[in-house]
Amino acid sequence: MDYPLTVDIAFLLLAILAVVSGWRVFCTDSMVRASFFLLVSFIAVGVIMILLAAEYLGVAMFFMMAVEMMVMATFMVMFMMNPAGLNPMMMVHQHKFSIAAGVVIFVLLAGVALLAEFPTNPLPADLDPVTSLGNELLGDSMLIFESAGIVLLTTMIGVVVLSSHRGRYGGAHEGSMPPGLVPGGDPAGMPKEDEEEGGGHHHCH
Amino acid sequence: MAVSWLSRLAARARVPVFPALGMHGDTILHRLALTPGIELVDSPRHASILLVAGGVPPDLHEALRRLHDQLPAPFATLWYRSAPLSELAGDLRVDDPEALPEALKRLHRELMSGRRDSSPRLLPDEPPNPWEGLGDDGHGGEGMMGGVPYGRPMAMNMHDDIRDGLTLDSLTVTLGPFLPVLPPGLGAKVTLQGDLVQSWVTQLAPYPIALENVFHEALQRPVPIAELELARARHHLQRLAFSLRLSGLEHLALVALRLSRGLNVESRVGRLHRWLTRCGFFRLTAAGRGRLEAGQARRVGGIAARAAGLEEDLRSRDAAYRRLGFTPIVQRGGDTNARWRQTLAEIDHSLQLACRAEQEDLYSEMTEAVETPRGPWDDYRPEDASDILEDLLPGLEWDEALTTIASLDLAGVSEWPLEPLSETSLKDDEERQA
Amino acid sequence: MIVSELLLPVFVVLATLAVGAYLVGVIDGAIGAALGAPRGQSAWLAPLTQGAWLLTQQANTTEAPDWRAWRLAPALYLALAATGLAVVPWSPTLIPTDLTTSVVLWGSVEALATVVIFLHGWSANTLLALIGAYRYVALGLSYILISMFVLIGVALPAESLQFSQVVASQAEMWNVIRQPLGLPLFLIVGLGMTFWGPFNLADSRDLAGGTASAVSGPPRLVWNLARAAMLVAFSGVAASAFLGGWLGPWLPGPLWMVIKMLVVLAVLLLIGRLVPRVQPERCVTLMWVVLLPLSFIDLIWAGMEALL
Questions:
Q1: Which positions, given as ranges, span the membrane (chain C) (predicted)?
Q2: Number of structural domains found in chain A
Q3: In a domain, A72, yes or no
Q4: Helices (DSSP H) in B247-328: which residue ranges?
Q5: Position C231 pLDDT exceeds 90
Q6: Which of B61, B432, C72, C224 has its CA 20 to 30 A from that of B286?
Q7: What is the C-alpha to C-alpha distance for residues C80 and C72, in angstroms, rounded to an integer?
């Protein structure tokens, strides 16, 4: 292959950085630090992808992971009972199970890397990876990618809506009531109170 | 060689001054803000000189020591109309406002050239509580609940967030009494979630503010209405300048300060008002928050009351004012936005009253009570009302809370009048310094 | 080969960073003086004297900061500015790094800037800096989508994600005319990512300097330098994406770039002085409810034009 020695050196350094920062994720005592160690690891992988001529995917990795880790850090700080943004906490749980799972997955992946037969047919020199990636994403596989994207977006919005106190008709702690069908009327879609008392628990409409 | 070249260049920098305000210390800041070669900074970490302006009450000396130790070396302390702390008895003290800018610049030059040593540290540099954390990463802690490093309670949330249920760390901190974005002397214990104020307990009331002598005289004998109204407009312009600086409109803050320095019956604020409207001050910054209830508004009095729709102004009881056709201006709203609109309208009104009163040479006639810029002064001086912040601020974001505080004049009125600064005109001052 | 592929690009980027950051200080000082700041020393000298003073001041410490992140954040922000400048083309031949995905690389510089600014405030372990950091995240997550749509808009007529192609596609008509919504939206993004003026939510006056409130001495100098450098990098990108980059009559390409960058810088700094800081909640509402739909319109506009 005709690439300079510097590429090999860069690959080794980046690979070490990716592994070491990935390992540090589990040694730190703060969710914010853990998120950003993970980000460093991903950035190193992104640069390796650029070295592998996957220019778009490598660069996309940077901004996807930057925003994702930022959102993850903030959301973890917001949703956890001890928001370890400032206070330290133990970041690893279920030690035995996770060690076992880690070993199994490592063996599987290493097995794939060592035993699989990778295709060797060289790509044409004039292949533009960005264009072919665009054709792939927005060609035959468009439906899959778009529906996956919509599902993820809906999930995110759903999580925020479920965890927020602010409902469509006011704060949840006040018992949010939908407005009436006429101005000042009874809440729409709610059974009347006397019905509730007289009619027992089950209504069949 | 290289170092001396660097320090010579550093000596020519604008002198970064952090003001720690004591009683009646804020008047000198209005002057320093307009002095070339001096930069008033917001954080002690950004300063080369700590300027203690005005007497600091003994119970705040400990806080002053802590503040003093926060300045990075090399730094010096200068005491303006204030007695140095006992440990710093040898420090420079200046009482003459004319000599202050030059003294600050000389101090900075001496520090940079090495002719003066940095001020000594007053307190031991150690954490307030002993280390009680675990772990090796500087913070310690174990388990889901974290540790108790430095013996402090963990940042766990016992209360629900009061707004949307997305809870960040609730942090309880003590602010003040030298935080430059709060009124001088105000100290508070604040619980924050992210930048949302969860609770606010006022621990130290702001220093009483000194009003110009004419308001004190008005309670003894009739005084020229023009003088009374100009003093009122000056007070409001200085408050406006503080708020404009806070919201990042430095140049308009300077316009307001220059206006207040050279204020006379011919001055007008129409242009300032137009600039404020055009740059979006009322819509982007002073948006309607910090709304006062009628009871709170009455307790604060003055502009805050009239901005909330209460038609309370002692001037309408004065026969001389009635002859000028005085009717109080009121707004509805009662929020930050209404208070600033009210302030600008009242400055304008005061200037018009002053203009007409001077033509007719009118004197106030009522001496049993006077409407001060801070509120009505009848049997009692306007009192401190900073405890209303405890009801007003929870639920506001930090920025909204600070603009609300800046729009309210909450401190009580001091028993002593303002010492008049010598009347050098602004132009001379700026030209001489340049 | 080493000279043209390694030394020259590095020299171009570093020289632009240093001179540009200094010019930001000068222009900002001159605008301040024109708007009535007390006249002190000349605007040419002020950035130098302040820098010299910061070099003589000691770097302070806070109680238990995250040292690595705290000291690295200013340097990383400066490095991001340098990365951004590296993809700005100066002429058809003088391009420090002519990556085929340079527009996307600029997008990731914007995203990583959010992380770095958050870290700068978070790692100091003090209240006001932390508030600045949280606030900035809200702002950063809001402007990044607007920026993406606007940049996709300029990539459409060029049919490329490469800044040199984006400039070349403007030979007939600059994007500022072709996509009238683009530049105003992008300038707002620029004010956001450098947290300057109306969008200075991170280092604002009401936080006593925000994420920089507890920083002194050389680290503060690096931070200030990095903010100015990021403005320069942004103005370079804005000039290439909307003002036709090196294109222009009579003068050589790089000179046109300098002129256009200075114009963008002056506009940004003027807005920074004239408009008050927007309240964080208003700011986020503005971004999501007004500016994001506008950026959709901009994108649809650009798409229609590319189709026609």
A1: 6-31, 72-91, 103-122, 134-156, 176-196, 228-247, 253-271, 283-304
A2: 2
A3: yes
A4: 250-261, 270-278, 294-300, 302-307, 319-323
A5: yes
A6: C224
A7: 12
Query: Is residue B2 less than 8 Å (CB to CB) from chain A?
Result: no
The answer to whether the CB atoms of C36 and B112 lie below 8 A apart is no
The DSSP output letter for C289 is: I
Select the residue of C49, C134, C205 nearest B9 (Cβ to Cβ). Answer: C49
* Residue B191: predicted pLDDT: 86
Say if A61 falls within a structural domain.
Answer: yes
Distances (CA, A) of B193 to A35, B21, B166, B190: 21, 29, 10, 10
Give the whole-number percent of chain B exceeding pLDDT 90: 18
- DSSP 3-state assignment of A86? coil
Is B220 inside any structural domain? yes
Q: Is the pLDDT of residue B150 over 80?
A: no
- Taking only the tens place, the pLDDT of each residue in B324-348 is 888 888 888 888 888 999 999 999 9
**C66 contacts in A (CB within 8 Å)?**
33
User: Domain of B179?
Assistant: 152-204
User: Given an 8 Å threshold on Cβ–Cβ distance, is A63 in contact with C108?
Assistant: yes
Count structural domains, chain B: 3
Neighbours of chain C (3+ CB pairs under 8 A): A, B
CATH number for the domain that contains residue B101: 3.40.50.12280
Q: Is the pLDDT of residue A203 over 50?
A: no
Say yes or no: B282 and B419 in one domain. Answer: yes
Q: What is the mean pLDDT of chain C?
A: 89
Tell me, yes or no, whether B269 and B178 share the same domain: no
Chain B contact set for A166 (CB, 8 A) = 163-165
C111 φ, ψ (degrees, to nearest 5): -65, -45
* Residue A153 domain boundaries: 128-170
Spacing of C-alpha B400 from chain mean position: 16
Task: State how far residue B315 is from chain C, nearest Cα, in angstroms.
Answer: 34
Task: Give the closest of B12, B72, B255 to C58, CB-based.
Answer: B72
The whole-angstrom separation of Cα B116 and Cα C50 is: 20
CA distance A63 to chain C (A): 4
With an 8 Å Cβ cutoff, are C36 and B255 in contact?
A: yes
**Structural domain includes residue B141:** no
- Which residue in B131, B132, B144, B158 has the most chain A C-beta atoms within 10 A of its own C-beta, making it the best mutation to test that interface? B144
pLDDT at A19 (0 to 100): 93
Q: Classify residue B134: in a domain, yes or no.
A: no
Residues B193 and B231 in one domain: no
Q: Using the beta-carbon criterion (under 8 Å), do A86 and B169 form an inter-chain contact?
A: yes
Q: Considering the domain boundaries, does residue A191 fall inside one?
A: no
Question: Scanning every residue of chain C, which has its alpha carbon at the shortest distance from the alpha carbon of B433?
Answer: C40
B89 and B184 in a single domain? The answer is no
Query: B129: alpha, beta or left, given left = phi > 0 and alpha = psi -120 to 50?
Result: beta
Nearest CA in chain A to C105: A59
Mutation target vs B (from C62, C126, C195, C275; most B CBs, 10 A cutoff): C275
> Distance, in angstroms, between A155 CA and closest chain B CA?
17
ipTM for the assembly: 0.89
Kindly report, residue by residue over B355-402, the tens digit of the pLDDT: 888 888 888 888 888 888 888 888 888 888 888 999 889 888 898 899
